[in-house]
Amino acid sequence: xxxLISIGIAVALLTMxxxxxxxxxxxxxxxxxxxxxxxxxxxxxxxxxxELLETLWPDLDTALGIGMPWVGPVFGELGAWAGGxxxxxxxxxxxxxxxxxxxxxALGPTLGLPDFVGDLxxxxxxxxFTPFDCVVGDAxxxxx
Length: 144
Prior knowledge:
The protein is mostly helical and 144 residues long. The model has no long low-confidence stretch (mean pLDDT 77). It contains 5 helices and no strands. The chain folds into 2 domains: 2-86, no CATH class; 89-128. It is elongated, with a radius of gyration of 20 Å.
């Protein structure tokens, strides 16, 4: 079991080191999980890593003699969940911060909050919803 955990950690670290560089090297991405916004890139990296494990699992299972062929499809399902429903939490965060920003702007003077708090929340919401684009040059800014 310790060997399996060590291999899992090594593959995870390799994925975190290799996948971003590989994604940056190909523009536009071909078979990479294409995130909607920059804020969803970590979820796309996790999804790609789990899909890689799904692909490699049959060979690892055979080579290591683990005898758990059912684990590969589990990695695939977890990857799909990480890139889909789990990544939607970023949208919910942006939506919630947008509501908080509206409240802070409306009640900020009454509560004695500095003016920059509303501006800071606006900037965060705008950056969360900045769409991912593989174009070199000026990026589209949704809050410009």
